[in-house]
Amino acid sequence: MRIEVRLFAQARERVGSAHARLELPDGSPVSDALTALGRVHPELVELRPHLAVAIDGVLARATDTLADGNELALLPPVSGG
């Protein structure tokens, strides 16, 4: 299955692009997508613990299952005051 990845803030800066594409086995969990993305873009590995992840605009957990055509967004931590 094909997953579109959107990168924001530091993730986008490190990769040099706002978009990436992954090919994964059907029914892969988010954690597998993040591992695969880290293999292709090792500069993202240290950011991983600090990123929130969304599937098609909805916050997701590492165990959530992906489907063909999903958009996976890597969201930076948000601070406010």
Structure description:
The chain has 81 residues and is α+β, with helices and mostly antiparallel strands. It has helices at 9-15, 30-40, and strands spanning 2-7, 19-23, 52-55, 58-60, 71-75. A 5-stranded mixed beta sheet has the order 2-1-5-3-4. It is globular and about 30 Å long. The mean pLDDT is 93.
Classification by helices and strands: alpha+beta
Beta-strand level of the residues, as a percent range? 25-35%
Helical residue percent band: 10-25%
Q: Kindly state the mean pLDDT as a whole number?
A: 93
Largest sheet: 5 strands, mixed
Number of helices: 2
What's the end-to-end separation, in Å?
41 Å
Q: Rg from C-alpha positions? A: 12 Å
Number of strands: 5
List segments where confidence is low: pLDDT < 50 over at least 5 consecutive residues. none
Write down the overall geometry: globular
SSE pattern, N- to C-terminal: EHEHEEE
Spatial order of strands in the largest sheet: 2-1-5-3-4
Features:
globular, alpha+beta, 81 residues, 22% helix, single chain, five-stranded mixed β-sheet
In short:
Helix content is 22%, strand content 28%. 20% of the residues are buried.
What's the helix and strand layout?
Elements: E1 2-7, H1 9-15, E2 19-23, H2 30-40, E3 52-55, E4 58-60, E5 71-75
Parallel strand pairs: 1-5
Antiparallel strand pairs: 1-2, 3-4, 3-5
